[in-house]
Amino acid sequence: MAVQLTPPTKNTFYVSVFLGLIAFILYLLGVFGAIDGGFDAISHYAFWIAMFGWLAMAIGVAAKGI
């Protein structure tokens, strides 16, 4: 049984997935050294982008429950 997402929660879901993918890509680029600035700086940005993606997902879940 699939959950049908309403338009506001669908957009929130897509934004959170997009932020998660960006964070994962930044992390991988930092691991492989493809971005200048050091792994510490890149992983810091990747962490906070992932946290904003998680927050967007939490907001979407809360909005679905209302």
Main attributes?
mainly alpha, 66 residues, elongated, 2 helices
Q: State the share of residues found in helices, binned by percent.
A: over 70%
Number of structural units classed as domains? 1
Oligomer: single chain
The pLDDT mean sits at 83
Task: Classify the secondary structure makeup into a structural class.
Answer: mainly alpha
Secondary structure: number of strands: 0
Overview of this protein structure:
This protein has about 70 residues and is an all-alpha fold. It has one domain. Helices cover about 80% and strands about 0% of the residues. It contains two helices and no strands. α1 runs antiparallel to α2. The longest helix has 27 residues.
